[in-house]
Amino acid sequence: MGLAWTSRAGVTPGALGAMERVDAPASLRELAAAAARDTQARDVLLARVRDMALKYARVRLGRFGAEDTAQDVAQEVCMAVMTALPTYEERGLPFEAFVYTITARKLADAQRAAMRGPAPVCDIPDEVDESPGPESTAVMRDEAATALALMQQLPAQQREILTLRVAVGLSTDETAAALGMSPGAIRVAQHRALGKLRALMAESSRGGVA
């Protein structure tokens, strides 16, 4: 997940110390520690934070016309992270958990604002873009929509775990820290969630789920 370091130029010794080779990715914690002194570390940190936030927002929104909202949420998360960095204190939790907390709050704010405002209206393009192929695109969209719809039938905790583990790409330990659970509990819940999702997909393929 995220970008990799490609050069030693401008990288602080602290960030480089944990890398086994020049292009090894630094952890978010290392990047956050170096961001105040190193513009390259700051840029990589923001790129990876934005990637995390965007993936999470897209899955949680999961409906047509939500891309602009997801992009806005990701941008606000980046701004909030940069604002908080000077006073951020590590308290034994991964930096990913810190980012998740901000993202969840910003997404909730965006959803409340959307409920109060008018329904979004999509722009109609002047010309039809048929690449890479309308049929293939339609099939992929249908499959993605089906998967997201089926995930909504899972219990909230299982849905959140799959979102963080599969869509965002957090590790078991990072997901556990973000949700205040033990890694073992995350593994058990994820196993149950995947089993339930497989059953729902099988039922859907037989026409049992609309």
TrEMBL record:
<dbReference type="Pfam" id="PF08281">
    <property type="entry name" value="Sigma70_r4_2"/>
</dbReference>
<dbReference type="InterPro" id="IPR013325">
    <property type="entry name" value="RNA_pol_sigma_r2"/>
</dbReference>
<dbReference type="InterPro" id="IPR013249">
    <property type="entry name" value="RNA_pol_sigma70_r4_t2"/>
</dbReference>
<keyword id="KW-0238">DNA-binding</keyword>
<protein>
    <submittedName>
        <fullName>RNA polymerase sigma-70 factor (ECF subfamily)</fullName>
    </submittedName>
</protein>
<dbReference type="InterPro" id="IPR007627">
    <property type="entry name" value="RNA_pol_sigma70_r2"/>
</dbReference>
<dbReference type="GO" id="GO:0006352">
    <property type="term" value="P:DNA-templated transcription initiation"/>
</dbReference>
<feature type="domain" description="RNA polymerase sigma-70 region 2">
    <location>
        <begin position="48"/>
        <end position="115"/>
    </location>
</feature>
<comment type="similarity">
    <text>Belongs to the sigma-70 factor family. ECF subfamily.</text>
</comment>
<dbReference type="InterPro" id="IPR013324">
    <property type="entry name" value="RNA_pol_sigma_r3/r4-like"/>
</dbReference>
<dbReference type="GO" id="GO:0016987">
    <property type="term" value="F:sigma factor activity"/>
</dbReference>
<keyword id="KW-0805">Transcription regulation</keyword>
<feature type="domain" description="RNA polymerase sigma factor 70 region 4 type 2">
    <location>
        <begin position="148"/>
        <end position="197"/>
    </location>
</feature>
<dbReference type="Pfam" id="PF04542">
    <property type="entry name" value="Sigma70_r2"/>
</dbReference>
<dbReference type="GO" id="GO:0003677">
    <property type="term" value="F:DNA binding"/>
</dbReference>
<dbReference type="InterPro" id="IPR039425">
    <property type="entry name" value="RNA_pol_sigma-70-like"/>
</dbReference>
<dbReference type="InterPro" id="IPR014284">
    <property type="entry name" value="RNA_pol_sigma-70_dom"/>
</dbReference>
<dbReference type="InterPro" id="IPR036388">
    <property type="entry name" value="WH-like_DNA-bd_sf"/>
</dbReference>
<keyword id="KW-0804">Transcription</keyword>
<keyword id="KW-0731">Sigma factor</keyword>
